[in-house]
Design a protein that fits this description.
heterodimer, A: 240 residues, alpha/beta, Rossmann fold, 2 domains, 6-stranded mixed β-sheet, 4-stranded antiparallel β-sheet, 25% strand, B: 354 residues, mainly alpha, two-stranded antiparallel sheet, 2 strands, globular
């Protein structure tokens, strides 16, 4: 049985700068892996390399056993990679429902079916009562949920969440943690870049710590947080 | 011409918000749900057809002006599929107008081809040209597509000037004789008026159907945010190419009618940048990415041009300039774009408050 996602020895370079160096990562269906590290550690770049938005110089990415590292982002999405963006990107001119309708069309060519699927995704994240609202009118917490609904509408098997929790107030955070947990329980493999440690410790069985583009620790959240190298990366580096 | 409803096709897009509870009057009982389900734009289309017919009856001496208005509205609506709904501004759509006109002219005078075949040929050629042109330029970012669009129309103009054997060069080409489909005289202004009206309605109906379906939403996704569109599994280059091909073929169809209307084809007005700019401007002023915006823009510019032609003679360009400045400053979404935005908000406020 191939793993849901298997990335090996990913290296991303921007000119002379090595943004991600030789990082590997793998997870199974239903598993949540956290990707943490100080700002500028290469988390988002690794994310972009896995989802196709950044070009990896070296390394392979396998989605359920088939290689996708040469595919553009849209082709990876069609094969079951869903993602959210750190700065949420609703389709501004459209309503909330239309925003989710667009990814829903990927799996349903028929308008009525796509609309039903979009509505279902909105219900999952608790936004169905906002369906006809212009998406530009949503507040931050709801924009995040819309972002999640859009990612869910492509029916992902592996889901990438880029700082989905950032800036949420405690009740919204708690709710979002609940959503993500239920998604994993429904059989989606999830990789999350996250700064909110509460979310990481509550959700992830496994955490990967990046610093200066290198993987410096890998393990259970508690174990990793006590790793002296991780503590140094967060607190010690004078140039951080 | 301005009697269209103030709702773009978007306004009827979502499902009715939890069935409005206000009891409709007996007469509107059947009509209201149909309007809610998105029937309103079709009503608008019927209004356009009626207004066109009214023009024919009321202004029988201004048929040429009407033909010009209808064709411009059709081109601008076709342009809008790419420029408004997909967000790729083209300043080269005169290329397709000229292509359509010349294909009809050349095939009729040199090969005696019946116009209905040359129309299909023109649309196919326009789609192929758009496909190739898109393949080369849609990979580029920023304003490169706009620049390339100017160049392509210019290349076609030079071809038309220099391929004398085919096109008659700078002197041009005269269409003397055309087959008569169903006994219709295509050189009669009356026939041409109805053809132009039918053409505009065809473009509007195509736009309405396309923008309500999968392709239409993919076009809007690409316009709003390409990265996010990719995350939704959309290949932006394919979507832009499809929109461009459709836009080009429809523009060329109008070009065919225009060629017959002119009968004397010359490279200068047909492939000129001025025409390309006019098509784009009309759509921008009326409201990009709205069903009736380009038509409203075409009507405004054409009628304003007529009104001021006597008063200011050569000041037409000045009025163009003023209109553009006013629109850019005060209604950047265009007239229909602004109206639609308000309609969407009103609708939401109603559903939230009710």
């Amino acid at each position: 049985m191939p793993r849901a996602l298997e990335a090996e020895r990913i290296t991303v370079q921007f000119g002379g700068l090595v943004a991600v160096n030789d990082v590997s990562l793998a997870l199974d269906t239903g598993q949540i892996v956290g990707l943490i590290g100080p700002n500028g550690a290469g988390k988002s770049t690794l994310f972009n390399a896995l989802t196709g938005y950044a070009k990896a110089r070296r390394g392979t990415v396998r989605l359920f056993g088939s290689n996708v590292e040469r595919l553009p982002p849209y082709a990876r999405a069609r094969r079951g990679m869903g993602r959210t963006f750190q700065i949420e990107r609703p389709f501004e001119g459209l309503t909330v429902l239309e925003n989710v309708l667009i990814p829903a069309f990927l799996r349903h060519a028929n308008r009525a079916e796509a609309e039903a699927a979009a509505m279902h995704a909105l219900e999952l994240v608790g936004l169905s009562d906002r369906a006809v609202q212009p998406s530009s009118d949503l507040n931050l917490a709801r924009r995040r949920r819309l972002e999640l609904a859009k990612a869910l509408a492509v029916q992902p098997r592996v889901l990438f969440l880029d700082e989905l929790m950032a800036g949420l107030n405690p009740p919204a955070l708690k709710e979002m943690i609940g959503f993500v947990r239920s998604l994993a329980d429904s059989g989606i493999a999830i990789v999350m870049v996250e700064h909110i440690m509460q979310a990481v410790t509550e959700l992830c069985e496994e955490v990967i710590v990046l610093a200066f583009g290198e993987k410096i620790a890998h393990g259970a959240p508690q174990q990793v947080m006590n790793d002296p190298r991780v503590v140094e990366a967060y607190l010690g580096g004078a140039d951080e | 011409m301005t009697g269209s409803p103030d709702r773009g096709p978007d306004a009827g897009a979502g499902p009715p918000p939890a069935a409005p509870s206000a009891a409709p009057g007996p007469a509107s009982r059947a009509l209201t749900p149909w309007l809610e389900r998105g029937g309103a734009p079709w009503l608008g289309l019927a209004g356009v057809a009626a207004a066109g017919a009214a023009w024919y009856v009321v202004f029988p001496s201004s048929l040429s002006l009407g033909i010009g208005l209808l064709l411009l509205a059709g081109w601008a609506s076709a342009w809008d599929l790419l420029g408004g709904w997909t967000g790729q501004t083209s300043l080269g759509h005169a290329a397709f107008v000229g292509l359509g006109a010349y294909v009809v002219g050349v095939t009729a005078t040199k090969y005696g081809l019946a116009p209905w075949w040359s129309v299909l040929l023109a649309m196919a050629l326009a789609a192929v040209l758009a496909f190739l042109w898109g393949r080369i330029t849609f990979g580029l970012r920023g304003s490169y597509f706009v620049l390339s669009s100017i160049a392509v129309a210019e290349i076609l103009r030079l071809i038309a000037i220099n391929e004398r054997k085919l096109t008659g060069g700078a002197i041009g080409l005269f269409i003397f004789d055309l087959d008569r489909p169903f006994g219709l005289d295509l050189f009669s202004r009356h026939t041409e008026f109805w053809l132009a009206l039918g053409y505009l309605l065809l473009v509007l109906a195509t736009t309405l159907l396309v923008t309500r379906g999968k392709l239409g939403y993919q076009m809007r996704a690409v316009r709003e945010d390409e990265a996010s569109a990719q995350a939704a599994g959309i290949n932006p280059v394919s979507v832009k190419s499809l929109a461009f091909m459709l836009s080009a073929a429809l523009t060329a169809l109008g070009g065919c009618i225009y060629g017959i209307f002119l009968s004397a084809l010359q490279p200068q007005p047909l492939f000129e940048l001025h025409l390309s700019v006019r098509i784009a401007l009309v759509a921008i002023i009326g409201g990009r990415g709205t069903l009736f915006g380009p038509l409203i823009g075409a009507a405004m510019l054409t009628l304003a041009g007529e009104l001021f032609r006597n008063a200011f003679a050569e000041a037409n360009l000045l009025i163009y300039g003023l209109l553009i400045v006013i629109v850019v400053l005060f209604v950047p979404r265009g007239l229909m774009g602004e109206l639609r935005r308000r309609a969407v908000r009103r609708r939401y406020a109603k559903s939230a408050g009710g």
